[in-house]
Amino acid sequence: MGTVVEATNQGENGNVTEQKPTVVFVLGGPGSGKGTQCANIVENFGYTHLSAGDLLRAEIKSGSENGTMIQNMIKEGKIVPSEVTIKLLQKAMQESGNDKFLIDGFPRNEENRAAFEEVTKIEPAFVLYFDCPDEEMERRLLNRNQGREDDNIETIRKRFKVFMDSSLPVINYYDAKGKVRKIEAARPINEVFESVKAIFSTKNEKAD
Ligand SMILES: Nc1ncnc2c1ncn2[C@@H]1O[C@H](COP(=O)(O)OP(=O)(O)OP(=O)(O)O)[C@@H](O)[C@H]1O
Ligand SMILES: Nc1ccn([C@H]2C[C@H](O)[C@@H](COP(=O)(O)O)O2)c(=O)n1
Ligand SMILES: [Mg+2]
Prior knowledge:
Layout: E1 22-28, H1 34-45, E2 48-51, H2 52-61, H3 67-75, H4 82-96, E3 100-104, H5 110-120, E4 126-131, H6 134-142, H7 153-176, E5 180-184, H8 189-201
Parallel strand pairs: 1-3, 1-4, 2-3, 4-5
Adenosine-5'-triphosphate (ATP) binds near residues 32, 33, 34, 105 and 140.
């Protein structure tokens, strides 16, 4: 795969230059099961899983100059500026050697969405949306036990509000374009994956 900094299908002279990667955005509230299902999709369908949250947490650990800013924003349940997150996603895409990506937890707001499109020129093939009631997500997050600084009730409530106010509009945007594949996520993991499998086994239109 060539660079994905700005993926293109046609050069200025009309020749095909490089193939755009296939991107599936994986969205849903905090604790809806995005990461869990992405691991299953990777095993079965050959995608590379890129979690925006995991990349940001790795950036904090790496001691980068943005680390403290990212850590403070995550603690408050806020969304990190797109420029930072998109750079991390692009780097991970380039380093993966794959051309099929599950981008988990991104775009989280309109700024994320528009900036990714502007910078990469990539449109998602479709958007997988895990729909789950808040009470179930809250129960899961409080039992997750992965030592995440944002899995406490105060931050969880802030994350739910950010999801409702900023992320749902992005899902609605893609829904209006016929790109959302909605999954009922408040079911056992294997049942949810049966629904996921059905979507990945169906021919979904490739990115524009
Ligand atoms: N269908 C399910 N039923 C019960 N528990 C689940 C289910 N799916 C995931 N879990 C558990 O819920 C917790 C949250 O799942 P996961 O980390 O996959 O969510 P997420 O959507 O990636 O959350 P976040 O946005 O916070 O990263 C984990 O402990 C996971 O094992
Ligand atoms: N596009 C994104 C994705 C994540 N973050 C920050 C804010 C989230 O609360 C946190 C954890 O993400 P998760 O692992 O729950 O997907 O990471 C962001 O700022 N922008
Ligand atoms: Mg996750």
